[in-house]
Amino acid sequence: MNNVTTSKFKGLTTFDLKIIGIILMFIDHIHQMFVPMGAPSWLDWFGRPVAILFFFVSVVGFSHTRSKEKYMMRLYVGMVIMTLGSFALQKIIGYEEVQLMNNIFRDILVGTLMMYGIDKISEGNSNKKVSKIVWGIVIILFPIITSGILLSLMSNPNTVMVAVQIVTFVPALLFTENGLMVLLIPLLYLAKDYRWLQCTLIALAALFYFFQGSTQWMMIFAVLPIMLFNGEKGRGMRNFFYVFYPLHIWILYLISAYVYMH
């Protein structure tokens, strides 16, 4: 008798979630880059769950990383390189029909800072150290405070260029790609031991966008792969994502510019 080996589905790993996110993101960015050529708006729908998938993965990654400081530093370097690279590319090419505003590194960094602050507050509560609690609160509020300062600088014609330069190097909540939706990261972190609660938070946010008439409500579809997450890391691809994210955006931008100008 032949032994038949049957493979059973064991759920999705962090690697699988990242791959799903990257594929959907790539389709979304095709829409973004080729809008001047009439790219159909429905391509944009594929990207609606992407931020949520990466937010969830960042919560998992931050919870298990050996050095949370190094984790944040990698995101910070990614944020700065992405901002400077996109700015330089647009200046060199001069293709104004598409604006490079993408920087998921900034979103995740802001969310990670808030997770870090939550950890400090938790440590302060455990050790009865008020200083750590205060420090944690300061860290959480930092991206919010910087947002207020930058908005104030931008409202003044004399300081607007200074603000633009500062944005490159300072994580600010209101200057993230996804805005207030980034607050889901610390919320998902607080609920990290309760998957059902994480999915409920995502569903509530999706409901908000639905009543706002925004296609961002389609973020609800991120719940399915998140529910299938098995808690395992899977294959490592950290460096791949840090390289792939800016490169695919810049390459698509160059292709779009070439097609449009010819």
From TrEMBL:
Q: Which InterPro entries match?
A: TraX
| Classification of source organism | Bacteria, Bacillati, Bacillota, Bacilli, Lactobacillales
Q: Which organism was this protein described from?
A: Candidatus Enterococcus lemimoniae
Q: Which domain of life is it from?
A: Bacteria
Task: Tell me what this protein is called.
Answer: TraX protein
Show the stretches that span the lipid bilayer. 12-34, 46-63, 75-93, 133-154, 166-189, 201-228, 240-261
Q: Which Pfam families match?
A: TraX
Q: Which keywords belong to this entry?
A: Membrane, Transmembrane, Transmembrane helix
